[in-house]
Amino acid sequence: MASTLVVYLHGFRSSPRSSKAMMTGEAIKAISSADNSIEWYCPQLLASPKESMEMVTAHIDSSKADRLIVIGSSLGGFYANYLAEKYACKAVTLNPAVYAARELEPHVGMMTSYDSEEPFDFRPEYIAQLKGLQVNHITKPERYFLIAAKGDELLDWREMVEFYQGARQLVLEGSDHGIADYANHLPQVIEFISQQ
Which residues span the domain enclosing 108? Predict the structure, then answer.
């Protein structure tokens, strides 16, 4: 009996209640079966990158699953790179912030979460923590599936395409940072996850 742990990592200021996280979770639960059980883990990440990764790796390390797959959106895609290299597992990255420290440096200070308006302090030391988690080169491109939108208003899709050279890539004409048409591309995500 095979078992898989799928870890979904949301983006900066986002949450497990984001539409992409919920859609992916529903699709994963729909393909989980007695013969091929899939555990879904989509935690609320913490403001501290270091503490977020400690929490996620503790969950992964305690899991009894045979295989691990990581899905990450935006900042979550940056974390997915770190985890995919650490655990030599597959990763799906959705408009990933491949250089998160650089992207988030201007956002140090008090921020609010998108869906709850909950305030949190994004501290200067978190930028150093992000630098410590930076993957400069992915070692096995075939383990990765990138979905990048040319219409991303926050991040440069060309940088993503270059970073994941050799990986499976779906580059969307238009769309946006949140990938508003994600439901159309979810079957490809599920197909990539389902392949051994």
Answer: 2-194
Phi and psi torsions of 113, nearest 5°: -75, 145
First to last CA, the chain: 14
Residue 175 to residue 177: CA distance in whole angstroms: 7
Specify the CATH number for the domain of residue 94. 3.40.50.1820
Please report the pLDDT score of residue 117 as a whole number.
77
Please count the structural domains in the chain: 1
Q: Token match 């989980």: residue? A: 32
- How far CA 26 is from CA of 5, 38, 40, 58, 138, in Å, comes to 15, 12, 9, 24, 29
- Taken in order 188, 178, 28, 83, is the CA torsion positive or negative? positive
Instruction: Count each helix (H run) and each strand (E run) in the chain, helices first.
Output: 7, 8
Cα 180 to Cα 138: distance, rounded to the nearest angstrom? 27
From residue 176, alpha-carbon distances to 52, 111, 122, 149, 180 in Å are 26, 22, 24, 6, 6
**pTM to 2 decimals?**
0.96
pLDDT band at 34 (very low <50, low <70, confident <90, very high): confident
